[in-house]
């Protein structure tokens, strides 16, 4: 075989398959085999040639179907057998993912490597919902943390971020919501607006907008589950539905149950 | 005219024209007129129909060619005259841009509005360079700050961010580099690795990698100018060129001048 064994790591974007980059599409078109994750739209696989194998190596609902070490080994074996392995990962492959570990492993095994960035949900989800992460006159920074740390504890950096004007973005933090609420409440920030978005940019998207004090109830009512992103800060009030912050969750539920019209309830 | 006056705000991505999204391309194909910024590759204009006007409304080197108020007025006037105004902005249109103000103005004038997120340079540039913003065992968060605040001062959030384990990303901060160095040095963080990247993801890209203590010199040697992004923190050592952190800038300059081979000098 004359093909150079290659790992091409491609970011699939935040969910909506049309949010992949043109460069990502071109990479898929040149794939000799595709390994894809759970958070990747399967529509994207149609960009790869028909006769090319597409192998699911993701995890769903926290259950690892393929351990990371197996993925690394598969990448190297397939690259040597077929040539160009396109590894399709959700969002951007280097943002809170293990893309960098895959590249390191592939390089150590002598593979050529290419990394094509993807659109991260961190910025794409609030933008697609119509509000910015920062806004002149409100704040000047945003801070991004993962809720899932190696030690299973909330990052200590959160205690600093909470003192800043920053919008706080938490990925993979839904299972830590009670701890997050406690941290904000202890700092007397229970009235801070928060948006929790499941499957942002997809047709199946669900959103809960509330305050820290009421968000756990709102998440329950809206039946939000993983994967979800949280955005905490005054900019959430820029969302078209932000009026819900000004009334109680119970009033919102009552309004929805009584069949209020428009996007707020249907969102 | 039967067309609905519409503002379609489209993120063009970080620089490389192939990093626009498929959705952005489709929006351009449906444009009745295009208004584009300075940081947008003009290659992207080819996606719009040939007979459609493409108007430059950007600023270059801090000189405003078109004031924001004029852009807002143009959007509304053109939407009423032509129909669908595609407003093409660099990166993501809501990240430290004034996209949200344009949407607010357009809505108030009765236009329909659509926002298509773009890939932000914040994540795309480090990914394309081969290093992640966070890495297990190094840190768990990153903090994004604009160097250009309304008051012309460094954001106070930086003083909190510097105490965290976060990687710090500063956009539009090159003119504040002396102040930034002073803040880190005062906190005894002068050995922190820093990468400054001009025109990331483009063929014209330039990069300076150094420590806080030596970065001003490195920027000068590498002739880095705006637009540039700064990434500060231990993850910069994950960059393939990070060995330059371990030697002095002078040694690096000497090595370059003596014609060392490979990507480090040619990067």
List the helices and strands and how they pair.
The structure is a homodimer of 267-residue chains.
Chain A lengths: L5 E6 L10 H8 L3 E4 L16 E4 L2 E2 L2 E2 L3 H15 L1 E6 L9 H10 L3 E5 L4 H9 L11 E6 L10 H5 L5 E5 L5 H10 L6 E6 L7 E6 L3 H8 L5 E5 L16 H9 L5 H4 L1
Parallel strand pairs in A: 1-6, 1-7, 2-3, 2-6, 8-9
Antiparallel strand pairs in A: 4-5, 9-12, 10-11, 10-12
Structural overview:
Two copies of one chain form a homodimer. The first copy, chain A, is α/β, with parallel strands linked by helices and 267 residues long. The first copy, chain A, is built from nine helices and twelve strands. Chain A has helices spanning 22-29, 68-82, 99-108, 121-129, 157-161, 177-186, 215-222, 249-257, 263-266, and strands at 6-11, 33-36, 53-56, 59-60, 63-64, 84-89, 112-116, 141-146, 167-171, 193-198, 206-211, 228-232. Chain A has a five-stranded parallel sheet, sandwiched between helices. In chain A, strands 8-9-12-10-11 form a five-stranded mixed sheet. In chain A, helix 2 (68-82) crosses helix 3 (99-108). The longest helix of chain A has 15 residues, at 68-82. The model of chain A is unreliable at 243-253 and 259-267 (pLDDT under 50). Chains A and B meet through helix 1, helix 3, helix 4, strand 8 and helix 5 of A and helix 1, helix 3, helix 4, strand 8 and helix 5 of B. Strand 8 of chain A pairs antiparallel with strand 8 of chain B.
